[in-house]
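Quick one, tokens below. Sequence please?
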């Protein structure tokens, strides 16, 4: 008897599955087909995206090589095109390089305008580097008060860029004729344990220069060379750059 009941139960279960399949089978097949298409589409897009990233990376390296060869006008055209790239990391880095080739051609107005645009970036690292470069670019032409305004967001006691900002301000003090204050500022930087070693070394070298040349001033030679602004953040060559 138990075998009969088991057979009946299996027949009922089978009939139920058949009814369910007749009712929902088409939906299951459609869902499976959509899943296959979605996976295939993602793989195709991923391959395309990777190829495009590699292409942009190669174009960026080529533009850098042109700039390094001293062909600023050609590099300008290439970086300008890359700055319109849909890959934000390379586009941003291209803009920083475009600033450099602008300045190499003495095109200050577009260089400063682009730096101001970058300074308004929502990315703190990009904005901070742009502000530093803008401050250095203006340090010989603007009074210290205006340089202070540019660097204001970086001067807070907990800001990681505060020492780089202080270096620009110390230089601006010297250029404005406040030699004693500049010496004090550079001396403080040279002894700041939390500042980067390179920055401390530059500050110490400028202190030595100023002390060895007590009559020097803004109209004379500059205290050592104005240190270069820090390099902008670099995107990963192909995989780490987001759109």
């Amino acid at each position: 008897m138990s075998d009969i009941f088991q057979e009946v139960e299996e027949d009922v279960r089978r009939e139920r599955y058949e009814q369910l399949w007749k009712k929902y089978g088409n939906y299951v097949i459609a869902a499976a087909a959509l899943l296959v298409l979605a996976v295939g589409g993602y793989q195709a897009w991923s391959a395309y995206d990777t190829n495009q990233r590699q292409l942009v990376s190669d174009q960026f390296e080529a533009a850098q090589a042109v700039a390094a060869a001293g062909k600023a006008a050609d590099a300008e055209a290439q970086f300008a095109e890359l700055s319109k790239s849909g890959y934000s990391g390379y586009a941003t880095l291209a803009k920083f390089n475009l600033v450099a080739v602008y300045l190499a051609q003495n095109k200050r107005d577009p260089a400063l305008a682009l730096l101001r645009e970058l300074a308004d970036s929502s990315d703190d690292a990009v904005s901070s580097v742009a502000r530093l470069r803008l401050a250095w670019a203006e340090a010989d032409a603007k009074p210290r008060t205006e340089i202070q305004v540019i660097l204001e967001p970086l001067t807070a006691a907990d800001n990681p860029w505060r020492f780089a900002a202080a270096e620009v301000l110390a230089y601006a003090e010297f250029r404005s004729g406040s030699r004693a204050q500049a010496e004090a500022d550079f001396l403080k930087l040279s002894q700041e344990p939390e500042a980067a070693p390179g920055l401390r070394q530059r500050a110490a070298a400028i202190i030595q220069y100023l002390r060895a040349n007590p009559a020097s001033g803004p109209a004379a030679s500059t205290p050592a060379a104005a240190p270069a602004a820090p390099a902008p953040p670099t995107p990963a060559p192909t995989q780490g750059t987001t759109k």
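The chain is about 70% helix and 0% strand. The radius of gyration is 31 Å.
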